[in-house]
Amino acid sequence: xxxxxxxxxxxxxxxxxxxWVIAAVAVVLGELDVIPNGWVQPATNEEFVLNAxxxxxxxxxxxxxxxxxxxxxxxxxxxxxxxxxxTAYHVWSxxxxxxxxxxxxxxxxxxxxxxxxxAAFCALITLAATLYCxxxxxxxxxxxxxxxxx
Length: 150
Fold this sequence. Notes:
Order of helices and strands: HHHHH
Strand content: under 5%
Radius of gyration: 18 Å
Structural class: mainly alpha
Number of strands: 0
Largest sheet: none
Low-confidence stretches: none
Oligomer: single chain
Distance between the termini: 19 Å
């Protein structure tokens, strides 16, 4: 069991780092003008819509990712053994990282398309939220303790 927990911890850390690497790749693509810089004219409806979508995705995406993970890793634990619980933990953690990754990439793309500082702030806020999701052995152990107590 301990070996599986260590393997899971390593995979979860790789997933978080992958989100940061994907964000860095998106920034590099923007700097190399693969993502067209300033494609959307300033002070237009298109810029407003893109910024509004980026802000709404950030405001909804971060709490949604955290809440989905919390709900689905605490609900129905009585019918799971440790292996099933750790698999569910990994699946929901991966989904949480996917949601945050999509929000980060969208915000970075909007930043380069519209050269909008608000989209860059949204990307930074979402990247900061990934730090909250950094896995630790103590979090997994507390989760397993919850599974074993229920």
